[in-house]
């Protein structure tokens, strides 16, 4: 046992203790414990595709393991991978991107850390829609930045507007940054290309650094995708091979950085991470040529989306904004519960269905929301949907 003085001396840092939990990972852990007992689990809690890396990625790695040392790359990553991504921006969006402005990073999580450190000073105010991906606010808070949450709902399609930003600018301290996610986590909603253009230009004109989270690009269901790069020379774009490319555990993504931050992010990457894992960069390069396989997976997600939306309608869960993209549904279950963590825990314990409580994404209002992920197999999503519907129709919930 440590003496009392030593306990105080070796206590966690204040800023470390202030970081909130990533609740979905607690759900994953609880689901794993249930599965370890041999009980059924339907994983609709986490945004992890139910398939592994595409075959071309696996083949590229197999070849590289027998032919190359896979040592360090430059801090911004393999040139052929950056060139391949630059070609994609031209093909998909008609936007010219200099490969020198693309940094390969250890997943979008590393990308957000690099972007936030490079773009903001301690005490800067950074806005985001709420509900949002919880790591935004948690990372910003750990860095001493002020989080400005913009409460949005189904009536806004869970996305911020120019009017929201103008209001935030009038607050003491103004606004130095905005994180915009389209498609978003947890809602799957998108801003239109016209709205993205308006917001990106507004931010550039007002000196607000736009961080555009585009990690779910490639996963849209009829809506048109656009990149902030088409509208703003000061925006930072964050993307990843985790979602559309089905490579979560490989921890590889990329930033597209503006000229004024390129050298800064280069230095930060070299000091903090040296480079992204080389073997993952090889896999990513192979994945760029796997579109046929990946688009087939997207068709499964689209079918799963329809399965869940139909089930929720039958269950009387109708307050939501149907997702334009990604693989999530953020649903208001206020007629069933006002305690989403307890509701999700009971649902897992009694049926095996794992979903995520809304307070992970909106601590203030998420007590009557839950998030469903539909990137598992069609069979698992159907079983999870059946479990939820049976649970609701049996009236087994109670606060």
Q: Return the string of H and E elements.
A: HHHEHHEHEHEHEHEEEHHHEHEEEH
Instruction: Quote the average pLDDT.
Output: 95
| Low-pLDDT stretches | none
Bin the strand percentage. Answer: 5-15%
Strand arrangement in the largest pleated sheet: 2-8-7-6-5-3-4
CATH topology of the largest domain: Aspartate Aminotransferase, domain 2
Radius of gyration: 21 Å
| CATH class assignment of the largest domain | Alpha Beta
Alpha-carbon distance between the termini?
40 Å
Whole-number total of structural domains? 2
DSSP, total strands: 12
Give an overview in words.
With 399 residues, the chain is an alpha/beta fold. It folds into 2 domains: 9-52 and 292-393, Aspartate Aminotransferase, domain 1 (Alpha-Beta Complex), CATH 3.90.1150; 55-289, Aspartate Aminotransferase, domain 2, CATH 3.40.640. Helix content is 43%, strand content 13%. Strand 5 (177-181), helix 9 (193-206) and strand 6 (209-213) form a beta-alpha-beta unit. The radius of gyration is 21 Å and the shape is globular. 47% of the residues are buried.
């Amino acid at each position: 046992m440590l003496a009392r003085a030593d306990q105080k001396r070796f206590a966690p840092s204040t800023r470390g203790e202030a970081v909130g939990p990533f609740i979905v990972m607690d759900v994953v852990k609880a689901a794993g414990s249930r599965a370890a007992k041999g009980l059924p689990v339907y994983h609709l809690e986490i945004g992890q595709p139910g398939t592994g890396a595409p075959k071309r990625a696996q083949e590229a790695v197999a070849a590289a393991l027998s032919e190359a040392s896979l040592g360090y790359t430059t801090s911004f990553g393999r040139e052929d991978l950056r060139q391949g991504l630059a070609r994609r921006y031209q093909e998909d969006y008609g936007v010219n991107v200099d490969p020198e402005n693309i940094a390969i990073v250890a997943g979008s999580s590393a990308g957000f850390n690099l972007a936030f450190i490079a773009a903001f000073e301690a005490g800067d105010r950074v806005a985001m829609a709420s509900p949002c991906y919880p790591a935004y606010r948690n990372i910003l808070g750990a860095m001493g930045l002020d989080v400005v949450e913009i409460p949005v709902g189904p009536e806004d399609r869970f996305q911020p507007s120019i009017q929201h930003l103008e209001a935030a600018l009038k607050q003491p301290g103004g606004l130095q940054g905005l994180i915009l996610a389209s498609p978003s986590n947890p809602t799957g909603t998108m801003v239109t290309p016209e709205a993205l253009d308006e917001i990106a230009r507004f931010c550039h004109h007002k000196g607000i650094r736009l961080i555009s989270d585009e990690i779910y690009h490639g996963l849209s269901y009829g809506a048109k995708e656009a990149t902030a790069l088409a509208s703003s020379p000061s925006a930072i774009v964050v993307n990843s091979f985790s979602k559309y490319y089905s490579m979560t555990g490989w921890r590889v993504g990329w930033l597209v950085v503006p000229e004024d931050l390129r050298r800064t992010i280069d230095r930060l990457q070299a000091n903090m991470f040296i480079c992204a894992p080389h073997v993952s960069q090889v896999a990513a390069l192979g994945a760029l040529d796997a579109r046929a396989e990946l688009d087939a997976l997207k068709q499964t997600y689209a079918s799963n989306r329809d399965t869940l939306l139909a089930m929720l309608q039958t269950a009387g869960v109708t307050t939501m904004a149907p997702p334009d993209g990604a693989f999530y549904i953020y649903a208001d279950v206020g007629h069933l519960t006002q305690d989403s963590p307890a509701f999700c825990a009971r649902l897992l314990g009694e049926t095996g269905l794992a979903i995520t409580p809304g307070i992970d994404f909106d601590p203030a209002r998420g007590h009557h929301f839950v998030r469903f992920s539909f990137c598992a197999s069609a069979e698992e999503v159907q079983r999870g949907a059946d479990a939820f519907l049976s649970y609701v129709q049996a009236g087994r919930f109670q606060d």
